């Protein structure tokens, strides 16, 4: 056994911190770099397609911002994997460090925060749009203009600045003086307990809201349209299932991280790596779903590749169709 392995084996890992094992931690770093690289390619593909078409940019502006945020999340995986890998290979992974030093001297905690919170805030904005389109179609048409969507898009970086300021402020006091036994410098060991708890609850809550909004759309369309838009209901059903799955996948790293931070249990780096990689996997899955359900996106890809595709009529979004159906239903009600 080498001196480095002896150092890791003799590390006294305290509760509220991570374990250090050379093999498991190396697996974690490789997994993060791999999933981050794949996610970067997926995000760059969809971002390029949106930016190359003026119509797509206007129609899917919030989805474009979401993909940009997911690109940041993918980059954070690469930074996390390379940063921890460097600590591991240089033999300093088990050297104690303060929470404050983790946040201010390491280059990946900030990207971890932004890479998970910014997609969540975008998801909440999209959920708001869904609810408005179905529950208040007239108000949706009046309020959710293109300028309003631009305003929501501008709020995303504002949120990023505010949440980083809050994270930095959380380690100024006694919480920042806490010494952790490893240099994983995750969110739970780079910020205060209250901020880390808020962070993971906020992420899960955002996707719960997305699930509820999709459920409302699905239930409304099911009541208003029985068979005419059956295929669209199938699409909504799949999106509903994916939203529910997203909650489970994103709740798993939240449970792991918060149980570590609140001294409830301990987890090895393999469990932490697999659960924390779930948002990266979701980014890849979301790209596949986008190509599956958006003909315009596929057509733009064929256009850029110089491949002729069958011309399709402009595709209405599910929310536009629901709005039109709601109006038609209201008119029939008044006539009868």
UniProtKB/TrEMBL annotation:
Main location: membrane
Protein location: Membrane
Similarity annotation: Belongs to the nematode receptor-like protein srg family.
Pfam families given in the database record: Srg
Endpoints of the signal sequence: none
Organismal lineage: Eukaryota, Metazoa, Ecdysozoa, Nematoda, Chromadorea
Stated name of the protein: Serpentine receptor class gamma
Membrane-crossing segments per the record: 25-51, 60-80, 107-128, 148-173, 193-218, 239-260, 272-291
């Amino acid at each position: 056994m080498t001196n480095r392995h002896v150092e890791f084996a003799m590390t006294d890992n305290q509760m509220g911190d991570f374990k250090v094992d050379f093999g498991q931690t190396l697996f974690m770093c490789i997994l993060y770099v791999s999933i981050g690289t794949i996610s970067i390619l997926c995000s760059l593909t969809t971002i390029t397609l949106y930016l190359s078409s003026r119509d797509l940019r206007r129609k899917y502006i919030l989805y474009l911002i979401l993909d940009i945020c997911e690109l940041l999340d993918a980059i954070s995986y690469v930074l996390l994997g390379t940063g921890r890998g460097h600590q591991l290979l240089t033999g300093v992974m088990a050297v104690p460090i303060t929470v404050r030093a983790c946040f201010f001297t390491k280059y990946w905690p900030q990207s971890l925060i932004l890479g998970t919170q910014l997609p969540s805030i975008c998801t909440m904005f999209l959920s708001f749009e869904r609810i408005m389109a179905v529950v208040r179609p007239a108000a949706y048409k009046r309020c959710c203009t293109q300028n309003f969507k631009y305003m929501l898009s501008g709020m995303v970086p504002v949120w990023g600045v505010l949440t980083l300021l809050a994270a930095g402020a959380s380690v100024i006091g006694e919480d920042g003086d806490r010494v952790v036994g490893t240099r994983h410098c995750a969110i739970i060991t780079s910020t205060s307990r209250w901020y880390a708890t808020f962070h993971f609850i906020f992420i899960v809550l955002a996707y719960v809201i997305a699930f509820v909004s999709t459920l409302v759309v699905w239930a409304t369309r099911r009541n208003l349209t029985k068979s005419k838009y059956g295929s669209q209901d199938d699409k909504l059903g799949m999106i509903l299932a994916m939203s529910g799955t997203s909650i489970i996948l994103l709740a798993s790293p939240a449970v792991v991280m918060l149980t570590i931070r609140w001294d409830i249990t301990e987890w090895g780096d393999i469990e932490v790596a697999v659960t924390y990689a779930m948002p990266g996997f979701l980014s890849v899955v979301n790209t596949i779903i986008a190509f599956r359900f958006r003909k315009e996106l596929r057509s733009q890809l064929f256009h850029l590749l110089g491949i002729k595709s069958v011309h399709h009529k402009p595709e209405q979004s599910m929310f536009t169709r629901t709005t039109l159906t709601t109006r038609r239903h209201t008119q029939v009600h008044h006539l009868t």
